[in-house]
Design goal:
By secondary structure, this protein is of the alpha+beta class. It is built from 8 helices and 16 strands. A hairpin with a 2-residue loop joins strand 11 and strand 12. About 3% of the residues have low confidence.
């Protein structure tokens, strides 16, 4: 694991919104109305089905990722890929998505967004969850794909309690161990220490309801964990299966869609082990392409659902179609 590279590189990257992160600063439980006033976007919620499982994409907002956040691509190449995708190279809005899974009598959240920990363009999970008609107290399980703040800061209330008060928190044991080992962050920049403290705050808030899993663990109700290490040591995807239908929620396999599908060799400065992250990305892109498996990404433009096809030496994302009926 290239821990030192991670610790020295991450704070210099272009995730500028993260610089104001304060551990445990999530808002109180949201009471926003499920409609938008003039000048605001409508609630970003979309439902679709995987067999008998209903998946609701819940938007948390977006963050700007620039060329300086990436590893392994020259700026001219970055700008060209962005321009070809009709994106502004200086202000690419990477989505932050969470997903609510309703299977049987369970409501399961996959990640929890940022709350107010990473700036005003984020923190929309709670309001959009309310717009979807899902009460936080109805959530029986929160599965954290990993413990970065854009995935778990929203699991806390403003006073540091559990936002999902009745939920078990499932997280990879490898991930839990990494963020709770202070030796991993000795001498690390302040931002990385803050990330680690927030992860510990989340684990503490859920206390004896933390349920670590290892490897390809069955998480019940048609959900299986899939180790996808590199971005963080315990970074995990979640495979949903029901009947003949499947969906892989692959979390942070891709952060910058116009670049990393075409150039899967490009890493991001927040990868704990950039080389392993690239190898994992290539492996899973090969698999979903061969199997024609639909994926859901934490940083694919909302609602985050896509198919992947091979394209030259890289890949191309094909956004999934709107599901008109459930």
């Amino acid at each position: 694991m290239h821990r030192r590279q991670f610790l020295s590189t991450a704070p210099a990257t272009g995730l500028a919104a993260a610089t104001g992160l304060v551990a445990g600063t999530a808002p109180a439980r949201a009471q926003e109305a499920p409609w938008a006033p003039p000048g605001a976007q409508v609630p970003a919620v979309q439902r679709f089905t995987v067999g008998d499982i209903t998946v609701t994409a819940i938007c948390d907002g977006s963050l700007v990722i620039g060329h300086d956040a990436l590893i392994g691509i020259e700026k001219d190449a970055f700008d060209s890929l962005m321009t070809d995708a009709f994106q502004d190279p200086a202000a690419f809005p990477a989505a932050v998505n969470t997903f609510a899974i309703q299977s049987g009598d369970e409501t399961i959240m996959i990640d929890a967004g940022t709350a107010n920990a990473m700036g005003p363009s984020l923190g929309q999970m709670a309001a959009n969850l309310a717009a979807a008609g899902i009460a936080p107290d109805s959530v029986t399980r929160l599965i954290a794909t990993h413990l970065h703040p854009d995935h778990v800061a929203g699991a806390l209330t403003g006073d540091g309690g559990a936002f999902f008060r009745n939920a078990e928190l499932a997280v990879s044991e490898t991930e839990r161990a990494f963020w709770t080992d202070e030796a991993n962050f000795t001498g690390a920049p302040e931002m990385m220490q803050t990330f680690a403290q927030l992860a510990r705050n989340v684990l503490s808030a859920y206390g004896d309801r933390v349920a670590p899993f290892s490897g390809e663990a069955e998480l019940g109700r048609g959900l299986t964990a899939m180790p996808l290490p590199g971005h963080t040591p315990g970074h995990s995807g979640i495979m949903l299966s029901s009947g003949d239908a499947s969906l892989l929620i692959w979390a942070d396999i891709v952060h910058v869609t116009p670049v990393q599908f075409a150039r899967p060799d490009v890493a991001i400065g927040f990868d704990v082990d950039p080389e392993q992250a690239v190898a994992t990305r290539r492996q899973i892109l090969d698999r979903v392409t061969a199997d024609r498996l639909m994926v859901a990404g934490s940083h694919i433009g909302f609602p985050g659902m896509a198919h992947v096809v091979a394209d030259g030496e890289g890949y191309r994302m094909v956004p999934a179609g709107w599901q008109y009926t459930l």
